[in-house]
């Protein structure tokens, strides 16, 4: 993961490099702790640009400083992972390889190359011979890129992975590849950005673009998504089959489910294992602590954001099959206080022992902790050769308030909702990996975090999917999944990337691997979600049956519980809030009252 930043201005005194120092520079450097470089490059005779790169080493024999300059003066800032689609030579980093492929500056060649990448990316590329600046994000928007476009009142262009909280900064829509021609652009005549959109985007989906963006409709950016969504509805015969399925995924029922799901179980497991393996292969042979070591270390290089639920449990088990036996795996499990009680309370319900009156007893036995521990124990039984580190990350209200004010609100920005606050805070503490394991203080040294984002959207895992089915049947369910898949790139992956990458680790999403998405797109809706069955069985059906056949019986039957509820962070705040409400905790000075061991707002 890298922190990349470009700024230029239309005033002589604009954007002196010293102005980059401060909080924003620290936020960028946290994303890329291995190498840092900054260059001021003349974009035109009157305009200079500041290119800044903070590199997290993930590919190649050694870190490649950024910006990467070529012999003609072109500059590349690359925050990406080429996991497949192109073969990167083993003696080169993917940054070097990308720079070579973009060197011609020919639009058609650039589009062809970027469209062939399987893996997340965000880039900023200045092509000196044509004075064109290219920038954009991958088809799902898995990496963060923010912008602030210039105007006569604010004559600066700003592109960056992350920035301190600022209402004027917005996420670059993951609609394709943007370009600015500095040979012709000016503020006096109206600033203009061209967009070469992804081939699958509709005109309607691009209707909310910034007014200075002009869509080039005659050229489209292709992608590695090989299949569109299967829109077939179940026939009468299939409905009879689905209606005869058992209500639970107990072992004696699996044969009935496998008979209906057929090859789809093995198909999904194969492509998902391949996705995990790709993310293992594109990781240096040593952990954060052993950077620079010439040999392969045995510390955990890869961790799983682990709630004990279906998505993370499957990733953990598949990761076991992709790593050398001697490596341990960190399972990062976050919890916030379930309740705060006192040893001297009148009701006598406190479980605290030998504590003086009015001393709070913290209870972190929240749903995700309980499910996580049970699943961890099952993983130990299924794969006893592996050293599984169940990392219990307990977060008090005091610490939550402190870190939200200090850093998290800047990473969540420009998003501002209560839901963004809850999820962002939970992910930040989970990704930090600081807690206890096996009864001792522990901080994960992992470089890569495997995350389960993307499974619910594709497999009908949200409660709204069941609601849509109840309201309109199979057709309505399919339309909801179609909408969910189509808008993944507009969702919150940029936020999650900013949050998780802050700890110098690379978040990677196997469920959003291009081949996994293409495979799931081919499956008919009734194999992905059968709402004739109850919660904990019908949603994400093919993944649940796959988990059960692997022996993950605990996780296979757990109903969906979002991280803000499973970790109990939502219970710490104003329970009258709605997730869509604007969150004052993200934008205002925090002046809390102290209540028990957590803050009451």
Automatic annotation (TrEMBL):
GO terms of biological process kind: asparagine biosynthetic process
One of the Pfam families matching this protein, by short name: Asn_synthase
GO molecular function: asparagine synthase (glutamine-hydrolyzing) activity
The keyword Amino-acid biosynthesis is annotated on this UniProt entry: yes
Coiled-coil ranges per UniProt: none
Keyword Amino-acid biosynthesis on entry: yes
Domain Asparagine synthetase: start-end pairs: 302-467, 471-550
Alphabetized UniProt keyword annotations: Amino-acid biosynthesis, Asparagine biosynthesis, Glutamine amidotransferase
CDD domains: Asn_synthase_B_C (cd01991)
Protein name: Asparagine synthetase domain-containing protein 1
Organism listed in the record: Chionoecetes opilio
């Amino acid at each position: 993961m890298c922190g990349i930043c470009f700024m230029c201005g239309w005033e002589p005194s604009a954007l002196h490099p010293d102005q980059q120092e401060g909080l924003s520079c620290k936020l960028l450097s946290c994303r890329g702790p291995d190498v840092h470089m900054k260059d001021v490059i003349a974009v035109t005779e009157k305009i200079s640009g500041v290119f800044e790169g903070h590199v997290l080493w993930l590919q190649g024999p050694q870190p490649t400083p950024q910006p990467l300059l070529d012999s003609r003066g072109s500059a590349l800032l690359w925050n990406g992972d080429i996991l497949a689609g192109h073969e990167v030579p083993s003696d080169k980093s993917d940054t070097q390889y990308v720079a070579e492929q973009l060197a011609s500056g020919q639009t058609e060649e650039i589009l062809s190359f970027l469209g062939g990448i399987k893996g997340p990316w965000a880039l900023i590329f200045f092509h000196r011979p044509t004075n064109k600046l290219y920038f954009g994000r991958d088809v799902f928007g898995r990496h963060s890129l923010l912008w602030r476009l210039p105007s006569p009142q604010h004559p600066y262009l700003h592109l960056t992975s992350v920035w301190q909280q600022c209402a004027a900064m917005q996420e670059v829509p993951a609609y394709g590849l943007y370009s600015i021609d500095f040979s012709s652009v000016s503020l006096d005549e109206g600033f203009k950005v061209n967009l070469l959109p992804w081939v699958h985007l509709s005109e309607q989906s691009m209707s909310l673009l910034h007014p200075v963006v002009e869509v080039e409709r005659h050229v489209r950016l292709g992608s590695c998504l090989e299949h569109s969504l299967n829109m077939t509805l179940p026939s009468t015969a299939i409905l009879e089959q689905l209606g005869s399925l058992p209500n639970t995924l107990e072992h004696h029922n699996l044969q009935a489910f496998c008979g209906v799901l057929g090859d789809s179980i093995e198909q999904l497991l194969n492509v998902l294992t391949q996705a995990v393996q790709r993310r293992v292969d594109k990781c240096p042979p040593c952990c954060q602590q052993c950077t620079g070591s010439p040999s392969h270390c045995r510390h955990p290089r890869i961790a799983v954001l682990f709630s004990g639920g279906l998505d993370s449990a499957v990733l953990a088990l598949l990761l076991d099959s992709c790593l050398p036996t001697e490596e341990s795996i960190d399972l990062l499990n976050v919890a916030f206080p379930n309740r705060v009680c006192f040893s001297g309370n009148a009701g006598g319900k406190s479980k605290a022992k030998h504590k003086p009156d009015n001393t709070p007893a913290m209870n972190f036995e929240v749903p995700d902790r309980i499910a996580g521990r049970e699943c961890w124990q099952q993983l130990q039984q299924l794969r006893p050769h592996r050293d599984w580190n169940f990392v219990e990350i307990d977060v008090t209200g005091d610490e939550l308030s402190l870190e939200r004010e200090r850093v998290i609100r800047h990473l969540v920005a420009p998003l501002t909702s209560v839901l963004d606050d809850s999820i962002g805070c939970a992910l930040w503490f989970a990704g930090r990996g600081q807690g206890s394991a096996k009864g001792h203080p522990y901080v994960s040294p992992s470089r890569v975090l495997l995350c389960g984002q993307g499974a619910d959207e594709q497999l009908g895992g949200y409660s709204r999917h069941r609601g849509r089915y109840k309201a309109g049947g199979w057709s309505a369910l399919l339309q909801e999944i179609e909408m969910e898949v189509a808008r993944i790139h507009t969702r919150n992956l940029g936020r999650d990337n900013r949050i998780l990458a802050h700890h110098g680790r690379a978040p990677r999403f196997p469920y959003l691997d291009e081949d996994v998405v293409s495979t799931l797109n081919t499956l008919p809706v009734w194999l992905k979600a059968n709402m004739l069955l109850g919660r904990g069985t019908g949603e994400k059906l093919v993944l649940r049956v796959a988990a059960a056949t692997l022996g993950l019986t605990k996780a296979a039957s757990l109903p969906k519980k979002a991280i803000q509820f499973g970790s109990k962070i939502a219970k710490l705040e104003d329970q009258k809030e709605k997730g869509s409400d604007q969150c004052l905790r993200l934008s205002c000075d925090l002046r809390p009252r102290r209540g028990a061991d957590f803050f009451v707002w």
